[in-house]
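Ex. 9. Protein: PCI domain-containing protein.
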Amino acid sequence: MVDEGSIAASISDTDGGMVHFLADKDECRTAEMTRKLQSCMAQCMALSEHVTAAHEAMATDREYLRKVTGKERLLRYDTAAEEAAGLGSSGMFHAP
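Predicted C-alpha cells for PCI domain-containing protein:
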C-alpha cells in the first residue's frame, strides 16, 4: 500500500524496515496549514529573541557574573583540595 501511494508513509532501510507515517500531501497544502506553519515560525522567532535578550542581560549583569565566577573559583579550589588530599571527585580516598 505504501508503494502504491494509498498510504502516506516511508519505510526506512536503516531502521530495519521501520514504517514512518507521514501527513497526507494534500493536507499540508491548505491555507489553514500555511497559517499554522507561519504561526509556529513566529512563535519560534519570538522565543529566539527572548532567549537572546536573556543571554545578553546575563552576560552584562555584573552581579550575576560575580556570583557565577565566584562559584567556579570555589569549585576549582574544592577540586584541587580534594586531589591534593588524595580524594577523587566522589569524595572517596584513592591511593596515589
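Check your answer against this statement. Helices lie at 31-59, 62-84.
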